[in-house]
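Researcher: Sequence recovery benchmark, item below. Answer with residues only.
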């Protein structure tokens, strides 16, 4: 294994962090919209949505955390490989891959939660249209 192997992870992690940031901004926008709706319409029947958004926000935070840890460990791995401590570099790179896997699994969980919430909204719309 040489120094270029961990470097392969950099573009992927950068794109993932960008995608995670976009998700965070989307959730933040939904929270602000919901907050404004509750203040103006005095609609407090949104507990499920609030719980869902809180969970998604927490997952997004941890997705970003493990993504950043992954790229940090990747950089540390490159350092160890650069000073020719190959075994340490390999182990740190393995940890980097593990952090990336955790980040991706959290992302998958967040997508599942968000699609479940959207399906609930679609059911509500469908029920209202049938009346």
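Model:
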């Amino acid at each position: 294994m040489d120094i270029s192997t961990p470097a392969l992870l950099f573009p992927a992690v950068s794109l993932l962090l960008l995608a995670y940031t976009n998700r965070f901004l989307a959730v933040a926008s939904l929270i602000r919209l919901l907050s404004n709706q509750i203040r103006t319409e005095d609609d407090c029947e949104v507990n499920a949505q609030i719980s869902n958004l809180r969970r998604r926000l927490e997952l997004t935070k941890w997705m970003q955390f493990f993504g950043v840890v992954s790229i940090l460990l990747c950089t540390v791995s490159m350092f160890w490989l650069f000073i020719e401590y190959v075994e340490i570099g390999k182990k740190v790179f393995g940890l980097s891959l593990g952090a990336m896997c955790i980040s991706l699994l959290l992302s998958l969980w967040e997508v599942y939660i968000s699609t479940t919430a959207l399906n609930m909204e679609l059911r509500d719309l469908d029920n209202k249209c049938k009346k």
